[in-house]
Write a structure and sequence with these properties.
The protein is of the alpha/beta class. Helices cover 33% and strands 23% of the residues. The relative contact order is 0.26.
């Protein structure tokens, strides 16, 4: 992968709550296969807001997280910040209830004090189980390679 844009990938989630940690698990897998000096990969845990302070100087940001929309577990979702802000994601809602603050609010707050990347993409998967435990559900585990593949495709755009 030879990226020309400076891209930051932020995995968000709580690995102690099963599928809620799928964003973190996805970036762990991504780190093993992506070697490009223009791509920075960060495990933000439950603190997207802190991770946003590291985004200056990047042109594109991918936020990887569990996304609940009512579709079957393991369904992959991809949309831009603009689509989210304009309600073009249908009834889809970011599943960030266990994080410090939801992503759109965190981004809006950070924009008040810093210049964020011009292109912001949310990529994630429908969780099956949000409950104490460090293991991903079978439905999510079976689709992790597909999620990582979709992240790589987005990095190549």
């Amino acid at each position: 992968m030879d990226s020309k844009k400076k891209i930051i990938v932020i995995g968000v989630g709580n690995i102690l709550m099963s599928d809620e940690g799928l964003g973190v698990r996805a970036v762990e897998l991504l780190q093993k296969s992506v070697r490009d000096e223009n791509i920075k990969i960060i495990d933000a845990g439950t603190s997207l807001q802190r991770a946003l302070t590291l985004t200056q100087g990047f042109e594109k940001m991918l936020i990887i997280d569990a996304i609940r929309s009512g579709k079957p577990a393991g369904s992959i979702h991809c949309f831009t910040l603009e689509e989210l802000e304009q309600g073009k994601t249908g009834h889809m809602q970011l599943m960030l209830s266990l994080h410090e603050i939801d992503a759109p609010k965190a981004i809006a707050m950070e924009r008040l004090v810093a210049k964020l990347p011009g292109e912001i993409i949310f990529l994630g998967m429908e969780p099956e189980r949000i409950a104490p435990g460090m293991e991903l559900s079978r439905a999510v585990q079976e689709k992790m390679d597909l999620l990582v593949s979709e992240i790589k495709k987005e990095l190549e755009k």
